Amino acid sequence: DPGTGSAGSSPWLGALAERFAQLRPALDRLDQHAGDGDLGTNLAGGTAAAARAGVAGDLPADLRVLADAFLDSVGGSSGPLFGLVLRHAAAALAQDGDDPARALADGLRAGLDAVREAGGAEIGDRTLLDALGPASYDKDRPRRHLDAAAVSAALEGARRTSDLRARRGRASYLGDRALGRPDPGAVGLAALLLALHEAVTG
Ligand code: ADP
Ligand code: MG
Ligand code: MG
């Protein structure tokens, strides 16, 4: 029904938007410490826009909607970069439906490369790559699945950004002032990976 603007909403996108609405104040506070204070608002805005897009889809369709919402309606660094990761995740999932956790691992690795290319940052620069990298590789070995170990590694990687000095993004202007708290984008990315893991494990 085009009149209502909603063709039946996706429960996974709705739950994701709810979770990022809850994380919003904490992520904004982290970004106040090292940036301009809008990371929580940006991630809450992107997920809410996706939930409003109102598809009752499978996970690949939901991820495409989510990627488009970030690319089309979220600014800053997180809009295009989260959008890029999500687009690669969605594409891999669409290609390999047999084993979604394996497809997501492949897609996230492609997303990692795309973000490095687009943003010029490397792992260790105190960005979302410090969550995405450990989720994609175990030491130097590609992870085969987005499993619990990959999610734990992402959360641990995000935690460790507290000790990293930023070399990219706004936080790089602050020198040591950003130390002592984690990078908000890394925390947000780890939260997204947890939600993706939940989606494929039920
Ligand atoms: P802005 O600084 O434009 O307000 P956001 O607050 O939306 O951007 O996003 C900030 C997050 O983006 C940072 O916490 C960091 O994780 C990530 N980020 C910033 N620059 C880069 C980059 N070049 N490569 C990867 N991630 C980046
Ligand atoms: Mg910001
Ligand atoms: Mg901003």
Automatic annotation (TrEMBL):
Highest taxon of the lineage: Bacteria
Instruction: Enumerate the spans annotated as DhaL domain.
Output: 7-198
Membrane-spanning residues: none
Coiled-coil portions:
none
Q: What is this protein called?
A: Dihydroxyacetone kinase family protein
Complete protein: which residues are present? Answer: 342 to 543 of 560
